[in-house]
Amino acid sequence: MKALMLGWEFPPHVLGGLATASYGLIKGMSLQGDMDITLVLPKPWGDEDQSFLKIVAANKVPIVWQDPDKNYLEQELEGRMSVEEYYHLRNCICEDNHYIGTNGIGSVGFSGRYPDNLLEEIRNYVAVAGVVARSQEWDIIHAHDWLTYNAGVKAKQLTGKPLVIHVHATDFDRSRGNVNPTVYSIEKWGMDMADHIMAVSEMTRQTVINKYHIDPRKVSTVHNAVTPLSDELVNLPNQNHTGNKIVTFLGRITMQKGPEFFVQAAKLVLEKTPNVKFVMAGSGDKMAEMVDLVAAYGIADRFHFTGFLKGKQVYEMLKSSDLYIMPSVSEPFGISPLEAMQCGVPTIVSKQSGCAEILNHAIKVDYWDIDAMSDAIYSVVTNEAFAAHLKDAGKKEVDEIKWEYAGQKVRRVYDLVLGK
Asked: What's this model's pTM, rounded to 2 decimal places?
């Protein structure tokens, strides 16, 4: 089965959970043996693992006809695409895209991130998707997150193939209800035009049904999973030699993630036991506010802000932690608690997170209940037997939450929309 997948990020260049989920899901689907997946990324860097899929560099796809010198063309393609593929794609240009500023090979630049002109990049990505959609015969179109929904609709209209969209988050999650009308309209259009919608949790599915007014029969839940750790990561040492218990928040320091509740709970814990250090790992628009809050509470000597961590650094932090907390206000799924549990770290998650639906050996509290959160933290850091139980039972549980199973659910959705 040939699937045209539209996505925005992919490891090792991780900006958020979308990259991790896209990698795990496609890798899990590839284990079925008969999946031929092509993923269009705005700006791949060339170091992505393409052993189980093909990546098309959107920033190298011609959307305006140019006839460059071959040496210049090879230089501009930077090894992201062959000359032959470029010429094939150029033959698939059927629309006037001259209103888009392009370079000497007729392609358009992308940041590969989430820039201030994100809506412009989304519109340009639609033009690229139109060319790629015409380049082959596909069985199905699969668009990830709101950034690619318009491109998915375009591909569907050009090919006549069914469109499934993957809802990794909605603007209700990102904005704490203060929804951006432009983003909402894109999300709503994609959902209306899709043949089927996959949500990463039942919580997200209900948001799609109730906030976007979608027929429940059209929406399925496909929970995320976690990628097994490499031997290198499994063998990372615990670097905590402070004599203190380490309690870690790891993620974007934004309104959605509830960092202030982590700080408030930390204050209550430190009133009962001093031998705990709290780590806030990540970056975001609320970081300065959190630093000020920690100072106002007089607990700065018990707090450490690491800044943004990536790759191996994340697991070094987890391996050195005694407890992981994700106090998100609204978390469609949340893969990081599964990663923590893989490392044998007891975990607390908010009841407002999708992963809480499938985890039995994590502590669950309401994000706003700082008394319950602080009590749970205190119980783990002071009760070795309780912590050991969570560590062992949690690891066994997440080791059975596999992307292969999520991939099988996606395949069943594909078969459903294809009438198989």
From this structure: 0.93
